[in-house]
Amino acid sequence: MENKMKVGDLVRFSKNNMYAKKLDTKWGLGLVTKTHNDHDTEVWYAKLETTRTIARDILEVINETR
């Protein structure tokens, strides 16, 4: 399954990944700020007030940018 994300997409951690489920409650929703390559994306988290580079396969898009 291909997981294409664009800058501006609203994302959260996938509920299918045990590790990601724990981070989802701590970090909340994030906003994609940059896509690095086929596997990683940079996400800004309001709760953390910073960005983190995250593997796309543990994220799911909640709302796509137009």
Tags for this entry?
41% strand; SH3 type barrels; alpha+beta
Quick take:
This protein is α+β, with helices and mostly antiparallel strands.
Would you mind describing this structure in some detail?
The protein has one helix and five strands. It is an alpha+beta fold and 66 residues long. The chain has one domain (10-63): Roll (SH3 type barrels). It has a five-stranded antiparallel beta sheet. The termini are far apart. 15% of the residues are buried. The mean pLDDT is 86.
Overall spatial form: globular
Task: Provide the CATH top-level class.
Answer: Mainly Beta
Q: Which residues form runs of ≥5 with pLDDT under 50?
A: none
Biggest sheet record: 5 strands, antiparallel
Q: Give helix and strand order, one letter per element, not per position.
A: EHEEEE
SSE-based structural type: alpha+beta
Strand content: 35-45%
- At CATH's second level, what is the architecture? Roll
Helix content, binned percent: 10-25%
What distance lies between the first and last C-alpha atoms, to the nearest angstrom?
21 Å
Q: How many strands appear in the DSSP assignment?
A: 5
Name the average pLDDT.
Answer: 86
